[in-house]
């Protein structure tokens, strides 16, 4: 008799516990649905500010280990994910434009003046058995991305006359100091006529011809005349 009472009580307790647990589960699901509905995700149609600002755009990122991807695979993958690119409106800054106009006034009769030229376009890097292909690629990558502010090219013979860097306060940063040290070394090794100008002296004529003649004296002597 006592055993039957025990079994009956156990069954009642199990059924009651199951019923309570089911009610709590349904209540939790219902509350999560309410919360989700009360917080709609903004879209370009409902939020003009989001549509007007490209900075809020987030590409549909998928995981991949880019260290082991070929360049084309990396390129196509990022394009497929919706990478955001924005074209620049200006090539040079206002200060650089002022100095450009001065260079045109001082040297425009003899030289074409180009802006933001990759250093890789100004330096030849011949093959050398002392250095591996990997070393050469990495060294080339160091200077190829450097953009020279101004490159003066002779209108007469299309030769490079001088390269000019306009130093502003950004050159005082630690990373720029290292970059400038690399650049000075490369220009010396390659014997490229190179002048540094300062934003505090925009009206000062740079020693373009003297620098060219000191760096490449034989070239000037063989022609018997300035290489304008």
Largest sheet: number of strands, sense, barrel closure: 4 strands, mixed
| CATH fold field value of the largest domain | Trna Endonuclease, Chain: A, domain 1
Class derived from helix and strand content = alpha+beta
Shape: elongated
Task: Please give the count of helices.
Answer: 8
Question: Poorly predicted ranges (pLDDT <50, ≥5 residues)?
Answer: 26-53, 221-225
Give the helices and strands as they follow along the chain: HHHHEHEEHEHH
Count of separate structural domains: 2
Helix content: 40-55%
- CATH hierarchy class name of the largest domain: Alpha Beta
Which value, in Å, is the CA radius of gyration? Answer: 34 Å
Mean pLDDT: 79
For the terminal residues, how far apart are their CA atoms?
A: 120 Å
% residues in beta strands: 5-15%
Q: What attributes characterize this protein structure?
A:
228 residues; alpha+beta; Trna Endonuclease, Chain: A, domain 1; 8 helices; 4 strands; 48% helix; elongated
Detailed description of the structure:
It comes from Escherichia coli. Residues 90-205 form the DUF2726 domain. This is Protein of uncharacterized function (DUF2726). The protein folds into two domains: 48-80, no CATH class; 94-223, Trna Endonuclease, Chain: A, domain 1 (3-Layer(aba) Sandwich). The chain is built from eight helices and four strands; from the N terminus they run ααααβαββαβαα. The N and C termini lie far apart (120 Å). Helix 7 packs across helix 8 (217-223). Helix content is 48%, strand content 13%. It is α+β, with helices and mostly antiparallel strands and 228 residues long. Strands 1-2-3-4 form a four-stranded mixed β-sheet. The radius of gyration is 34 Å and the shape is elongated. It has helices spanning 2-38, 48-52, 71-80, 94-107, 133-144, 174-190, 208-215, 217-223, and strands at 111-118, 147-154, 160-167, 194-198.
């Amino acid at each position: 008799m006592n055993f039957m009472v025990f079994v009956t009580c156990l069954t009642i307790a199990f059924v009651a516990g199951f019923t309570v647990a089911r009610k709590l589960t349904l209540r939790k699901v219902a509350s999560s649905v309410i919360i989700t509905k009360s917080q709609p995700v903004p879209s370009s149609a409902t939020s003009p500010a989001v549509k007007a600002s490209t900075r809020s755009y987030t590409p549909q990122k998928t995981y991949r280990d880019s260290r082991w991807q070929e360049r084309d695979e990396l390129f196509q993958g990022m394009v497929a994910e919706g990478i955001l690119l924005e074209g620049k409106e200006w090539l040079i800054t206002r200060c650089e434009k002022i100095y450009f106009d001065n260079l045109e006034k001082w040297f425009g009769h003899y030289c074409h003046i180009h802006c933001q030229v990759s250093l890789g376009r100004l330096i030849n890097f011949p093959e050398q058995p002392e250095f591996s292909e990997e070393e050469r690629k990495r060294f080339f990558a160091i200077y190829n991305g450097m953009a020279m502010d101004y490159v003066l090219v002779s209108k007469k013979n299309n030769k490079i006359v001088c390269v000019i860097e306009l130093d502003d306060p950004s050159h005082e940063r630690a990373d720029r100091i290292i970059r400038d040290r690399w650049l000075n070394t490369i220009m010396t090794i390659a014997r490229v006529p190179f002048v540094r100008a300062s934003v505090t002296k925009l009206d000062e004529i740079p020693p373009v011809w003297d620098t060219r003649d000191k760096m490449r004296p034989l070239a000037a002597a063989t022609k018997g005349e300035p290489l304008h």
